[in-house]
Amino acid sequence: MSVPPAQAFTAAHRLYVKSLYRRYLVNSLNWYIRRDLWRQKAIEIRAEFERNRNITDPRALAIVLEQAEAKLAKEAHPDPYRPPLFPDGTKWERNIPPRMFNGEEAHH
């Protein structure tokens, strides 16, 4: 679910970086069950983003973002967590209501 980077230093760029940061956090949460261990990883991710916060050269920024996308793709969890009621979750369409028939089909 890679999103192409936006032009540097625009509102779209900020949204892209926020999306990248969130995808990093979600991916790390897929790897850590215990929140206390995950929190340490989240702090490391934040520090990594903060280190690159003041890059002003658009070319250097594009390289950093490209490397971040590649790292995220490489570290993606093979079986990510899906909330139970979301598509592909354990309860997705488990108890869907029966199909309603019109008058003709109901009489067998």
TrEMBL record:
It is a peripheral membrane protein. Its main location: mitochondrion. One of its GO terms (biological process) is mitochondrial electron transport, NADH to ubiquinone. Coiled coil: none annotated. Residues 76-108 are annotated as: Disordered. It is found in: Mitochondrion inner membrane. Pfam families: Complex1_LYR. Residues 90-108 have a biased composition (Basic and acidic residues). Residues 17-72 form the Complex 1 LYR protein domain. Keywords: Acetylation, Electron transport, Membrane, Mitochondrion, Mitochondrion inner membrane, Phosphoprotein, Respiratory chain, Transport. GO terms for cellular component: mitochondrial inner membrane. Belongs to the complex I LYR family. Accessory subunit of the mitochondrial membrane respiratory chain NADH dehydrogenase (Complex I), that is believed to be not involved in catalysis. Complex I functions in the transfer of electrons from NADH to the respiratory chain. The immediate electron acceptor for the enzyme is believed to be ubiquinone. Mammalian complex I is composed of 45 different subunits. This is NADH dehydrogenase [ubiquinone] 1 beta subcomplex subunit 9. It comes from Vanrija pseudolonga.
